[in-house]
Write a structure and sequence with these properties.
With 164 residues, the protein is mostly helical. Helices cover 52% and strands 5% of the residues.
């Protein structure tokens, strides 16, 4: 989870866009996030709040699958740890970066701005809700996730409203 603003140059963000666009265009049968898992996790964590929300992902794309701040480098962009790559909801990678940035609101806002097209799509909103559900689930066991519990819960509430 991000604790301070890494103050990344615009060129770093351009490189990330380029890398994620190339990855999303790569055809694969490998799966990073199954629909059943996404629906189950969101329902387990958010319960009645999502009872009437359709969490069916309409758009899938090839994804790193675990693109948090510990799996990317700066100032030179390198993407690490490819163990979970495969098909996931469109916007999954920026959703993970955004959610793990919630402790540094300016960076979370930058991720939302940079990847607005994907993150505001229905698939991107479901991806964000899925990542938030995972963070909220981990909050009872990990201090870094616990620090994000409040902003994650607030963001999840807003996404549930948006997805209704």
């Amino acid at each position: 989870m991000l604790a301070t603003d890494p103050d990344l140059p615009d060129s770093w963000w351009v490189g990330l866009h380029t890398a994620l666009a190339a990855l999303a265009g790569f055809a694969t049968l490998r799966v990073s996030g199954r629909q059943e898992l996404i629906t189950r996790r969101i329902s387990q964590v958010l319960g009645a709040a999502v009872q009437h929300v359709d969490t069916t992902v309409p758009e899938w794309a090839t994804s790193h699958g675990d693109l948090h701040w510990g799996n990317i480098t700066a100032p030179q962009l390198r993407i690490l740890d490819w163990a979970d790559w495969g098909l996931a909801p469109r916007g999954n990678d920026p959703a993970c970066l955004w959610a793990t940035s919630l402790g540094v609101p300016d960076v979370a806002a930058r991720v939302l701005t940079e990847f607005h097209h994907d993150l505001q799509s229905r698939s991107g909103r479901i991806a964000r809700l899925w990542v938030l559900s995972n963070i909220l689930r981990m909050a009872g066991r990990r201090a870094d996730a616990r620090a994000l519990a409040e902003p994650a819960a607030e963001a999840a509430d807003q996404l549930v409203t948006d997805l209704h």
